[in-house]
Amino acid sequence: MNRISEMLTKLIKGPDENNPDDPLWSRLPTTALLCIYQNLGDLDRLSMARVCKPWYQSFHVPALWRYRLIEFGETRSKREIKEDALFKSKRALTNSYGKYAIEFAKRFPTSLQDIEIEFLPLRGRDGREIVNDFKEFSACLDNSKLRSISILSLVHLSSLDTFVGQLRIDLIYSLKTLLQKQHCLKKVRICSSHFDLESGLQFLQCLADASAATIKELFMYGLFQRGTPIFGEGRILTELQKFKSLSCIKLEYDIMSDELAKTWVRGCPNLS
């Protein structure tokens, strides 16, 4: 993380003065440079930005930082990232990991529009460290106006034997804080979170209170732990009925009910 901070600090002063502009490099159009940047990891982006002024200027184009895949957990090998890229091209080599993600979020908070947060298997790492990283990252988004957010595979953290008590409370609090400050969300995707009933309800309540009027697409799979008695749970129904602007929704069968379906049919004319 220190290396990232130092390199970002140096960028404030501009590109490396020891690398004079090459005429051929200067002729590359911004669109071409952005295509190159989008296929580089964060450290390579930083190195590229210090080559010459055109590359430095392209590094700061807001469009380059609108979409970010943020990973918390065990770092993945380059081979794993490339294999994943074969199936998810948008995520190819654009990953930002843990503490690195925090530094870039501090640098480009207002550029972020679409983020995907994924929790990877920890392989022995301390859950407290991951929760602290996520808490710090969430705090960096206070001035962001996100349009889309995906939270994936939280089960990898919640499956830890140590993920109890204050650790679980802190994570739920960070999620709530993040959602409460986002009032422009249009798309939300939650997969494999496996909350208990009360934690899942708190999450739904924060999401509904902050963005129920703007969310058009809502996808939720594995929000609750298996075996959680959610069918017919009145509090879940109350929170979901707050979403009145939906055009597309995908939920688990256990969450759906006749009353909820009728509410959405009457209140969401664009629902498909």
UniProtKB/TrEMBL annotation:
Gene3D superfamilies (UniProt xref): 1.20.1280.50
Domain of life the protein comes from: Eukaryota
Domain F-box: 25-68
Coiled-coil blocks: none
InterPro entries for this protein: F-box-like_dom_sf, F-box_dom
The protein's name: F-box domain-containing protein
Pfam families named among the record's database cross-references: F-box-like
